[in-house]
UniProtKB/TrEMBL annotation:
One of its GO terms (biological process) is proteolysis. This is S16 family serine protease. Residues 153-236 form the Lon proteolytic domain. It comes from the Bacteria. The keyword Protease applies.
Length: 262
């Protein structure tokens, strides 16, 4: 039967084709970015020798404790990421593979992405300032806030900037600190009305927070599922939806009362 004698050859040819395809897939670049825990910054402190938060037109108080904004670091938008990189990230606890469009939603060149990230950061800082001054019942025509932070883009620092401004100006309203002397980290966008929004990358940001000494992490309630999935030991989650809720939760934390959890 001649067809039977050809079967091994056909199978061998198919196997060879599959092997070639697998090899191509292993080395072909993928539309993916690898992200890792990034640096954190205490917004109550300094960055590159200058205060992160400067306020003029209102008294500024000396604070204790820390309010650390957290970041993730990602491969450059034009970097080649392969199947082997994704496989490594899959099994690692300190890495994640994310769609490149999710990490760099603006697309474009590196320069264009940098410009978009910088604009998002500027818009976030303006919204944070407005939310803080609204909460403090201060007029932006009399009080000026300047926020300085190098090498960080995007909108996810909004909540921490707002809390930092409030702590610098008014603290807890009774002569104490919002932090109660703790190292508190967190993430979340904010608008001028004080609404807190989701950001992404929370599990890796939690790792960065715990690495740098935080014991409390403020997280947008919409991201509680991700926040609980790989929560580092020793890090307490507080779920927030808006600025008033965040301030109330910090007040409860200082008083030893229960706080909103995920």
């Amino acid at each position: 039967m001649p067809t039977l004698s050809r079967r091994p050859l056909i199978l061998a040819a198919c196997a060879a084709v599959v092997a070639v395809l697998l090899a191509v897939a292993a080395f072909a670049p993928l539309p993916v970015s690898i992200v890792v825990p990034g640096p954190t910054t205490d917004v109550l402190g300094t960055d590159q020798g200058a205060p992160v938060i400067s306020v003029t037109g209102a008294p500024v108080r000396t604070t204790s404790g820390q309010l650390r904004l957290v970041t993730i670091s990602a491969t450059e938008p034009n970097a080649a990421v392969h199947f082997t990189d994704v496989a490594k990230a899959w099994f690692a606890t300190d890495q994640a593979a994310m769609p490149r469009d999710a990490v760099y939603p603006s697309g474009g060149s590196v320069k264009e992405i940098t410009q978009v990230n910088q604009k998002q950061m500027t818009d976030s800082q303006n919204a944070a300032t407005s939310a803080a001054l609204n909460q403090l019942h201060l007029s932006p025509s009399k009080v000026t806030v300047k926020l300085r932070l190098a090498d960080v883009g995007g909108p996810s620092a909004g909540l921490l900037f707002t809390l930092g401004i409030i702590d610098k100006v008014a603290g807890d309203g009774h002569g104490g600190d919002l932090t109660g002397g703790r190292t508190i980290a967190g993430t979340g966008t904010i608008d001028a009305s004080g609404t807190v929004g989701a950001v992404g990358g929370v599990p890796l940001k939690e790792q960065a927070a715990r690495r740098d000494g935080a014991t409390v992490f403020l997280v947008p309630r919409d991201e509680c599922g991700d926040a609980k999935a790989q929560l580092p030991h020793g890090l307490k989650l507080i779920a927030v939806t808006d600025l008033k809720g965040a301030l109330s939760a910090l007040s409860s934390l200082r008083a030893g009362r229960p706080t909103p959890s995920c």
